[in-house]
Automatic annotation (TrEMBL), chains A, B, C, D:
Entry-linked PANTHER family: MALONYL-COA DECARBOXYLASE, MITOCHONDRIAL, PTHR28641
Gene Ontology MF annotations: malonyl-CoA decarboxylase activity
Organism of derivation: Roseateles aquatilis
Single Gene Ontology BP annotation: fatty acid biosynthetic process
Highest taxon above the source species: Bacteria
Annotated ranges, domain Malonyl-CoA decarboxylase N-terminal: 62-145
InterPro entries in the record: Malonyl_CoA_deC, Malonyl_CoA_deC_C, Malonyl_CoA_deC_C_sf, MCD_N, MCD_N_sf
Stated name of the protein: Decarboxylase
Amino acid sequence: MAIVDSWTSARAARQVLGLAHKLLSERGQANSLGLAGDLIEKMGTLPAQAWPIVFDKLAADFNPDPAQVLRAAQAYAATPDGDALLALTAVSEPPRQELFRRLNRAPGGTATLVRMRRRLLDGLKGHDDWRIVDADLLHLLSSWFNPGFLEMRQVDWNSPARLLEQIIHHEAVHAIDGWDDLRRRLLPDRRLFAFFHPQLPNEPLIFVEIALLPDMPDAIAPLIEKRSDPMPPASYKAAIFYSISNCEPGLRGVSLGNFLIKRVAEHLQRELPRLKLFCTLSPIPGFAAWLQGAPALTGPDALPGLKRPQAERAAQALERVRHHSAAALASPAALSDEALQADLRRLAAVYLIAQTPRPGGDPVARFHLDNGARLERLNIGGDRSAKGLRQSHGLMVNYLYDLDRIEGHHEAFMQGEIAFSRGVGTLL
Amino acid sequence: MAIVDSWTSARAARQVLGLAHKLLSERGQANSLGLAGDLIEKMGTLPAQAWPIVFDKLAADFNPDPAQVLRAAQAYAATPDGDALLALTAVSEPPRQELFRRLNRAPGGTATLVRMRRRLLDGLKGHDDWRIVDADLLHLLSSWFNPGFLEMRQVDWNSPARLLEQIIHHEAVHAIDGWDDLRRRLLPDRRLFAFFHPQLPNEPLIFVEIALLPDMPDAIAPLIEKRSDPMPPASYKAAIFYSISNCEPGLRGVSLGNFLIKRVAEHLQRELPRLKLFCTLSPIPGFAAWLQGAPALTGPDALPGLKRPQAERAAQALERVRHHSAAALASPAALSDEALQADLRRLAAVYLIAQTPRPGGDPVARFHLDNGARLERLNIGGDRSAKGLRQSHGLMVNYLYDLDRIEGHHEAFMQGEIAFSRGVGTLL
Amino acid sequence: MAIVDSWTSARAARQVLGLAHKLLSERGQANSLGLAGDLIEKMGTLPAQAWPIVFDKLAADFNPDPAQVLRAAQAYAATPDGDALLALTAVSEPPRQELFRRLNRAPGGTATLVRMRRRLLDGLKGHDDWRIVDADLLHLLSSWFNPGFLEMRQVDWNSPARLLEQIIHHEAVHAIDGWDDLRRRLLPDRRLFAFFHPQLPNEPLIFVEIALLPDMPDAIAPLIEKRSDPMPPASYKAAIFYSISNCEPGLRGVSLGNFLIKRVAEHLQRELPRLKLFCTLSPIPGFAAWLQGAPALTGPDALPGLKRPQAERAAQALERVRHHSAAALASPAALSDEALQADLRRLAAVYLIAQTPRPGGDPVARFHLDNGARLERLNIGGDRSAKGLRQSHGLMVNYLYDLDRIEGHHEAFMQGEIAFSRGVGTLL
Amino acid sequence: MAIVDSWTSARAARQVLGLAHKLLSERGQANSLGLAGDLIEKMGTLPAQAWPIVFDKLAADFNPDPAQVLRAAQAYAATPDGDALLALTAVSEPPRQELFRRLNRAPGGTATLVRMRRRLLDGLKGHDDWRIVDADLLHLLSSWFNPGFLEMRQVDWNSPARLLEQIIHHEAVHAIDGWDDLRRRLLPDRRLFAFFHPQLPNEPLIFVEIALLPDMPDAIAPLIEKRSDPMPPASYKAAIFYSISNCEPGLRGVSLGNFLIKRVAEHLQRELPRLKLFCTLSPIPGFAAWLQGAPALTGPDALPGLKRPQAERAAQALERVRHHSAAALASPAALSDEALQADLRRLAAVYLIAQTPRPGGDPVARFHLDNGARLERLNIGGDRSAKGLRQSHGLMVNYLYDLDRIEGHHEAFMQGEIAFSRGVGTLL
């Protein structure tokens, strides 16, 4: 049985690769649509075991010819003119890219490539050589899913049930507990916006959820309470981005989130001119793990972003915190220990400010700070859920999006500098 | 005055280039949208004289570094693995492409790039170095305007007046003489389909006009007669593509026409299953000029596609035809000289079959034959307009699209073989 | 407290009636829109206790003047010409109708009148004098909600969640158990169509649910089983109308259901030409109650529709059935007693055929038979739910819609004749 | 030939009337849709000569029964209760109305009735007995085309060409000279709004044209000059209704214009809050004819609306004006005679103020004044076109719509009082 399967898979893989070579060799474009259509159909029914064979071959057989590239590079180095450059680019781009572009021309091509990348990413660990296939896919998908081609749409209770069902399924941060919960998140003081691509018109790519509130919130529970009453419009002063979820793993690495947040902020500012504040209420998913790793806060390996007295105060706090077991730190009871909470908050500030620009830094912090947001406030007990206690010891962060200062913060972050409020500064 | 202008232009060009460098150097993506927006705005108001400065710099300053490329090519030649390839592609792609991709992300970016290419193409003659800029633009635009991203829409009398106005303006083959003429071309036995891009939703990119007839037509006049009565649907047996016009010069070289023709043919076949025949009624715009050049039909320089007796018969016909002046050949009176017309038709067949695969071949023939159509019939007096007589001596051609044989014909054409009907064969 | 309330109500009612008189007395139309708007607003916030006052006055004060009517009727009787008729209609139409027409002109007017009638119907029992108000409302609403003005739309999983929520709420025959149940009823082998009015664009007025099956079904459970797999399209041979629900009590008496069924049948016939059979699977809601009433099947009070031997056989069946208590007849155990079931089915046939044209006849039977359907089959144990056993002793009926014979059946029904199949005939 | 025609017509008319009787006698509604559909089809192909036969019969055979009506009226006079009233309305409404309502239920019914009324109105002169048919049609059409059911849409250059073509065709006040002229009237400083009915979705019923200007205009020519440049939005202070045209003669007498003007004014006020003034620029189509009739301005037959000195001044002006022939008064040269123009303007003011509430008054004045507008200004030489000189001696009027005072003016007009500005007052 297994033998037959593997034989069938190999045969299916060979057919796909045969069509791929034929499509790529096609000199004109007239016929390519038919070939691409055939290839898309074959890929749609390819058995799971056949994919690794296809990926191996895509990685091995669709690369530039090293000798040709070398000759073209030498010619270009000798005479760096237009002709030499045209000759160089003609031979140095991996033929895989042209293959993918031709696939993308036919109906269903874009969806097929996105799904293929999903599979590729699933198996990337352990297949280092597939990385060049992934690089080409990411390069092209970034070009095709650029924000200029995306459509932002508000999702509300008038949206098709089929779309809402996908939202329930893909919410990754604060799970949606059925239709009644979703409905609450679409009442006037909650908003949901998603990006769509014309080629995948019914599939949200990424979406963000917003709460409209009188001021910056310090805890997540009231925002996602499904039995709460909606606030009157006159009270909206702050727009809180409390959840952002990718729906399409095949687009990992394609920048969508920061464009979505900014376009939504501009949209809300136009619709509700009285909004004064745009911020997040975010977890610190890397905090507890970092703490368990007993980071060096003083001494030669210490975090470089801290001044000496700050580092010493943090080291003392760390020592006190380490008297508690991991389990104790993650238990609800810990929230009542005020001194402990103050220490944790100090350490979280250290973690976010000094570690974020470095490997092992918090991914959520990196996302927002790179977007140009400012670290505004750390909230003790902001997320008392089991997951919140385990990952962040209950702490939540407000990142502030000051639309006028986003650029400056972003550029500073590029230099390794973190923007934070005076309030956060005093925590150090 | 001129001095001031040139100084202003130089300054504006410098600003554009400054923003371009800044946009390209931007490490993250968070800020790029704002910068790209600024650049798009600046480009929108750039004085005409400033563009050549910008193009010169785009051609000179945004190229790969020859030394870096050479090193990467050598490394890749030494060890052709994934890492070496990633390093190579990172340095060999012209940075211009990344610049254009970043521009394309912002609202209005696509339109700005298309308009920029229009200007570039206008000045390309005389600026050979700009060709590498054009190559990069064409490369990206082909990727972004691939048929998978385009939407085909039928244009009819219910379409917005603003769109119809553009159709009147852009019809390049058989000019539309005002709204009444257009209206006739949108009655049920005439159809018009266009391609649109989501980023340019109100601008047709290319459109094709179709007549639905009982059989293959031999003259254009009845098809574009604005006072004609529409035929009843039951009589539609043949779909005639009688005009195809590009609307956007900035997309020259991006394949649109062949995809449009095929998608329309499939659409019509579904809507009207009784259609039996898809063909064109096309001019031979290069024929008269080729004839004036007194082509060698026999001897060492003769066209290689002809057998000896064919070439001799053609040479005799050419000799007879050359007794008439160019003006005489292009006069309506010539249409009554049957012997002359027979000679012209024989020569046109020779021209289309033997010359099309070669430089100087007819562009319309090349377009359809490369698409996989077959040269079906030559019609004497098919176009008796002044332009028709001057360019094609009144001859018109039917190219037949046999949907089942398109692939075979196209592949044969790739090998230099022309598909023609038995009827055309006998003309040789 | 109560005194204040009743005083407030009386005052609010007086305001409404004052505006009504003013609106009606308005000679031109220029101002009526503003007045109607004011009246609509007032009616929107009228306290519940004020409505009876308003209805009393609407019934008493907006009637034709008897003396005027009499004079006009005498004049028309003397000289029955156009002038006399115009004079007659001018005074004999209740001014209420003009009042309602003027209300209907303003934004929200239609919805206000529909809601007002809902309230009126709620209180009609015990207020005989309100019937003339109801008659005028029904007369006008029938004119405004005529099927020519209604839009039929298919409701599916792409419909807005807000609409689907209303469907769940209003399904009156076979309750929808949440979103998953609804979703099953919208898969391709189930259909749902609703009528909408342009003035109430987001409110379904009535909807019908259809199952597409290989043949005529004899039990409801498989049709509404939410975990069932959808059937493949090739198997659809019969369209079963298994549920029809009104959403708007304020439109009671306005014919909607029969128009909807016929429009849906035509729509499905066009979409799925292979459909051979349109029928219902319906309850007999009046059967058990009729049986309890011990109807006279022979003797002087017997049902007139039966021949002597039929009546005698039925009387014997009735006698046997009456040995069982009502509770026993409605218990699931009764379904296993084949002889009893045969008796019940015979009696149901008698009930439907002989009683339907008379008072106390089954309302569902009357609806479908008046529509021109034929009584096709009685199914033992078709509905084994508690409600089904209690009301119909588990029996269900198929009414057949033979589109070619609907007119004939309807006209016969007008004469008191019931159309039934040979199979049903043998049951007598 | 004529004999055959008249025989055919009579036969077709008989068929229509037969179907009408059958449709009306139909007791249930189940079948009425099919019958109504047949009748609509027959009416669609009825020969022109058959219509008078149909109208004669509609007027004669579908009336209430005088004896029945008399009995019901006597019973209602004796006991004026609900039952008696229900019985009365059941017999006194002309059965024609129910016939038309049933026709209206079927697809195409509304359009058929509107077209039928168009024919009826064409022949009404000379057929006094048809007036009762017209009364019933107008009664029902007023109910079905009430403004609550109408949709107001802006028409602009993005509207379908098919719709714009109808606008060109129906503009009745200032003819549109082709597509370029229309295009100018749709640029941002010109607006066009129309009413549509859901049952006739592609046919405008009535439309109004607006110019957005810095102030109240005194001449029409600049407003309809097709080569004029559009004004910048910042300059819009006044919205001028310069043309209003009915498209559907079959709706004559159904109030549409005043509702449209008011809805447009509210719409513009919301869109452009800086608009300070809503007015018309209107002709006085009845003025020249009234003048030719040598109206009595003093003496026993004098217009009652004038004070003695006003009447005397007007009589003197009239005497001076009557020294000029009608042709001289309508010639462009007359515009240079300032004294004459002052006299004409005085007389126009008299005509509008004193004659409008009476028979022979100006229809345009009656329309706007009844709507609640105020007579604001008379402009000498406002319309120098041939038609303008002939009908109004070049005078044009501004009627002012002061949204806050519309109701008061309208109510005063109902009492016979004309609202006019102080400026107009001084003309008397």
